[in-house]
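Tokens help. Our protein:
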Amino acid sequence: MTEAAARRTPGTPCWVSLIVHGLGTTQNFYAELFGWEFGPGPEQLGPYVRALIDGEEVAGIGQLSPDRHLPIAWTTYLATDDADLTAETIRACGGTVGVGPLDAGEAGRMAVASDPGGAVFGIWQAARHIGTSLAGAPGMPVWNELVTRETATVAKFYQAVFGYETEAVVSADFDYQTLHLDGRPVASLHGVGHALPRDRGPHWMTYFEVADTDQAAQHVVELGGHILQAPRESASGRVALVADPEGAAFTIVRSAKR
């Protein structure tokens, strides 16, 4: 793959990662749910594996050290050409950089940050590892959405850092903006006001594609996870909000196009 082909436009969601207490049991859960296989990943921050579908990289799962007690949540990574410069811009625009920037072996350079509302996200400067390399298949991350209190203020932050263009849904009771790069939608912002979960606060939500939302939601329960919001129809397809056995929430979706 050439350098030009591998490059992701800065701001493009390019990877999702999860850090858990029980790496082995979490691998088993997602292997059963999505059919993932696993290969080794960089271990600069501890044990870490990459999930694979048909040999193509999908997501990452790492293990927390026993003395660390952090929220268990999927983290969306946004592409950058320069992790250090982007980290400086995040700080200048009112965000916080909690980890890095640091090298992940020869894979690339990364940092973990939070926006002014407190939602955690990562930035990824690709080297050998460009990020998720497969699309449009069950088990793949297909969308990323920031769930926050209101979108107007935080949209300005992401625009300033990554240069997004935004398209707002004009509605008296629906606060929603789509983020665009190069004329195409890449992510969204959803303001939910007082409906924001108190135990989570603002957060990025990963959508994984499934062949059948209802069957997948039931399988989550059978594997020791939980259904947080029952399957329902939405503009993007049939969706359900679920959580794995350690409590990491994610959305499963059967695309309306399928």
About this structure: The longest strand covers residues 226-234.
